[in-house]
Amino acid sequence: MKLNHIDLQVPDVQETAQFFERHFAFKLLTAPTAKNIAVLHDEEGFSLVLQKSKRQDEVYPEGFHIGFVLDDVEQVYSMFNRLKGEGVQVGEVLVNNRGTMFYFKIPGDVLVEISANKKM
Asked: Taking CA atoms, which of 63, 66, 103, 117 is between 20 and 30 Å from 79?
């Protein structure tokens, strides 16, 4: 069985879609002016669906996040430095028995993990 898509509820579909296009190389498949839904694909064929939140006060449960894995530790640091350089508020780089990683929130207040499974 293959995971088909994830559907995230966000307050601003266009802002969040643009973030995924810019920083994660997702391609937008739906109209860029659509305010209620965006469907994006990555180079691996994964689909990400963004839908406008129906309620302003909805939040994801504590600990909910989406994770991206990179091939090596150097790519983690490169992404960290690029995001930080563009003004994205990123947490510190962590190194533990799971690998090297950092966390940050994207538009829509969704927590994202960037990691590599190897320690430096």
From this structure: 63
**Concatenated DSSP letters of the chain:** ----EEEEEES-HHHHHHHHHHHH--EE-S-TT-SSEEEEE-TTS-EEEEEE-SSTT--PPTT-EEEEE-SSHHHHHHHHHHHHHTT--BPPPEEETTEEEEEEEETTTEEEEEEESS--
CATH code for residues 64-120: 3.30.720.110
pTM of the model: 0.88
CATH of domain 1-54: 3.30.720.120
Domain ranges of the chain: 1-54, 64-120
